[in-house]
Specification:
The chain is built from twelve helices and five strands. It has about 375 residues and is α+β, with helices and mostly antiparallel strands. The protein is rod-shaped, with a radius of gyration of 38 Å. The protein starts with 6 loop residues before the first helix and ends with a strand. This is Two-component system sensor histidine kinase DesK.
Length: about 375
Amino acid sequence: MKSKSALLDGLAERSDDAGPRRWGWLAAGVWLFYLAQPFEQIVNQSHGIARVVGLAALLLFAASYVGFFGWVRHVGLGSGGLALWQRLAYLGGMLALVLAMLPAAGQQALTCLVYISATAMMALDLRFALGVVAVLLGGVELSMRLVPGWSDDGSYGFAIFLAALAVFGMRRAIQRTTELAATRKDMAELAVQEERNRFARDLHDILGHSLTVITVKAELAGRLIAANPERAAAEVADVEGLARAALADVRAAVAGYRELSLAGELVSARAALKAAEIRPELPTTVDEVPEENRELFAWVVREGVTNVVRHSGAKRCTIRLSATQIEVLDDGKGPTPGGGASGHGLIGLRERADEAGARVQVGKAPGGGFRLAVKVGL
């Protein structure tokens, strides 16, 4: 985000938008009305070559002022901007035109310094712009006192100051708008990334559990084909049903409407554990769990049982429920050396727990094995 970039760069970034900004040069051109004063002075009070030079300088000055806005749009400032010396050279060219019209316009030529002040506030970084405005103010005040016949009424210096102040306010407004647009863009990108992470997490949890159970049942069916064909056929039918359910879950997750049922996950967990020849000790009711905690606890059951079936080597798995806590324990190998689990499933579970204001605990179960617990209310 460019919090202190020159206003010219901010305008260049905004100039690609369609709409009225395309005609910003026309809005700026309205202020050329005040150049009528030096024009009238040149036409009525000068003659010969001085008049020709004065009129040419005045027309070129007006063209350079209006052309500045077309410059912003078309020169390609958005891809790195113009160098400082180029911007100063542009302003120097405008000042040279003012000096060229002095013999014909006299004191009225100082009106053009107001336009240079406004252009400097737009084209330069603030510290350089203030320096240019200070030089213009000093030059006006000094010339008023040194040039014979020029009257010092303070109007030119005041006009330069007001022009700089007005453009400074516009400059800050455009910078805030540019920063706000950049912030909104960043927030939109973060929201998209967060949604991608959420969907990847849900897909991992959905397919990880389902495919684990399918794999276990398929292996069991393969071992039973010769010894017990009828049971093998039943296991194959279960595999088919699980595959269809997994497909439905994926479709529901894509649609964004999927919610887990704690009771349903306990039923699935019992079937998965039995298929893996692990004795399940599971609660038969979820009535004591508040409705707002059930979906989180359902994810705990899914992730915990998937890990038990995949990694534990356990013979027994126990799930304990209370109103604010759920525990999944087994009598298997226990945590890996070096600490708790850090797989994608547990990372996703921690993220869900954080969103719900809960705490995840992983470690060794009493008597050996692995323990996964989630407690609501930190």
